[in-house]
Design goal:
The complex is a heterodimer of chains A (43) and B (183).
Chain A: H1 3-23, H2 25-42
Chain B: H1 2-27, E1 46-47, E2 63-68, E3 73-78, E4 80-82, E5 85-90, H2 96-101, H3 103-110, E6 114-119, E7 122-131, H4 136-149, H5 153-165, E8 169-175
Parallel strand pairs in B: 1-7
Antiparallel strand pairs in B: 2-3, 2-6, 4-5, 5-8, 6-7, 7-8
The chains are: A mainly alpha (43), B alpha+beta (183).
Chain lengths: 43, 183
């Protein structure tokens, strides 16, 4: 993938993922539970 | 091929960074913390006045919300009652990730420790005082192990060792000094 297209893809992914985390509480809760599980195991 | 692998790694790193930044910013000024990320000032809930309650009711409370006044931030945390007093633990204190994750504990130990605890929707003004030795540790270790690790003798011993070794810090949620009328 060319650099320009890759950067556009990154921008779309970042914006879409951030919006999902903010607008869909179930997604952010699941992500946080996974993160705290990881930290509890590896910290 | 290498280019594709690097681009894929870049996207994974990007998603991780966006997740942390988004959730941290979203919770910064919230009325309380999320599961993992610190929140802002605890605003809602009745402010308790008068004598302390019988803290044994916290045996049925898995986590409370704890706000430090300086810096203003709040997080979810375990709680243990022992000998009529309440305590909160902060684990992983000697690991690299723990030092980043539990920065509040360092701030509480180095600062004035003024805090607000919200337990079952009621806010209590308290002062965090680190406890690291003495007979009180036995009771706290036993209660923490009972509540959060099944209570087996091994679990009690492990919890006590973690406290004594400094892997887990314990803070008493004491009444604020010089403000007995507030609590």
């Amino acid at each position: 993938m060319k650099t320009r297209n890759y950067l556009i893809l990154c921008l779309i992914i970042a914006a879409g993922w951030a919006a999902t985390l903010v607008l869909v509480p179930a997604v952010s809760v699941t992500v946080e539970q996974l993160m705290i599980g990881f930290l509890s195991t590896n910290a | 091929m290498l280019r594709i692998v690097l681009q894929a790694v870049g996207i994974v790193v990007l998603i991780g960074a966006v997740t942390i930044i988004t959730l941290k910013i979203r919770n910064m000024d919230a009325d309380g913390p999320s599961i993992l990320f610190p929140g802002g000032e605890l605003v809602s809930g009745e402010l308790h006045t008068g004598p302390d309650p019988d803290w044994r009711f916290t045996d049925d409370v898995a986590v409370i919300e704890l706000q430090l006044d300086k810096p203003m931030s709040s997080r979810r945390i375990f709680i243990a009652e022992s000998g009529g007093k309440i305590y909160v633990p902060s684990g992983y204190m000697r690991s690299f990730i723990g030092r980043l994750w539990k920065d509040w504990a360092f701030q509480a130990a180095e600062g004035d420790g003024l805090a607000v605890a919200r337990i079952r929707g009621t806010r209590y003004k308290r002062q965090l005082i680190r406890v690291s030795e003495g007979d009180v540790i036995d009771g706290i270790a036993q209660k923490l192990a009972q509540k959060y690790s099944g209570g087996a003798p091994d679990a009690v011993a492990v919890t006590k060792k973690q406290i004594i070794d400094g892997d887990t810090w314990i803070f008493e949620l004491a009444p604020r000094q010089g403000a007995a009328d507030e609590n």
